[in-house]
Amino acid sequence: MKIEFYGLSKQFDQDRTVLKPMDFSDDIHTLAIIGPSGGGKSTLLRIIGGLILPSSGRLYVDGIEVQPDEKVLQQHRKKLGFVFQQSGLFRHLSALDNIVLPLVEVHGYSKIKAEQRAMELLTRFGLTSDIDKKPSALSGGQQQRVAIARAVAAKPKLLLLDEPTSALDPEYTTEVLDIIKELKEEGMNFIIVTHEMGFARHACDKVAFLCEGMLMEYGRSETIFTMPETGQLQRFLSKLLEWNV
Ligand code: ADP
Ligand code: MG
User: Fold this and answer.
1) Whose Cα sits closest to atom 15 in ligand 1?
2) Buried b / exposed e along 74-103 (16+ C-beta atoms within 10 A)
3) For tag attachment on the chain, is the N or C end more exposed, with fewer CB atoms within 10 Å?
4) What digits encode the pLDDT tens for the residues 206-218?
5) Which ligand lies nearest to the CA atom of residue 20 in the structure?
6) Closest listed residue to residue 47, CA positions, set 1, 80, 71
């Protein structure tokens, strides 16, 4: 999936530039966005997803410009799946209904088709015995698996994940990352913001390093991790590796 942007920037307040003008053009299959907190990773992901507008610049996905027009943005968002740090599941609905509801309301599935699709995904993600449970009865890892099932249910062209495992206990992190890896093997395109460097390095084809609102490095993941060019990336990686076994 081709992602392009030119002169893309974001300012929330007059004097606080969160993203400095940046250019990018590549065919994305699986991309990890890494970098220190506050560097602008979530902001960039939200702009790509059409959830917020850039202050300047143009964004193209699959050659189509994502124009700052509510109708265009809605169409754009419909083609994507979103997963955030907190699962964002509807608290009053069962796991099954959390997946069924958007399929029916947003994507125009019939109730029967939506339930079939939801069951198929819950089974595949190892949640067969949890279909009737509300989010509060599920572990953090199970909730994120339901959230991922919901995000991919309508077969999005691109899945956007913003730190999907950072609110989880370590034992649940693996089960969620495994599912994302499985989706990759099935051909799902995704962009993931993550602090899981092993996942960025080994499960993602490309890595973008965002720091101080700048896209400082971009390339094949193995190259980014073995031959960091900027002092910022070198420092970022060595800090992360400090306590590794
Ligand atoms: P990251 O995801 O890399 O931690 P973010 O994109 O969340 O970084 O944030 C980058 C900067 O933008 C932070 O300093 C944050 O406080 C600021 N920021 C993010 N969202 C908003 C907002 N809605 N209004 C004002 N400032 C924001
Ligand atoms: Mg963030």
Assistant:
1) 38
2) eebbebbbbbbbebebeeeebbbbbbbebb
3) C
4) 999 999 999 999 9
5) 1
6) 80
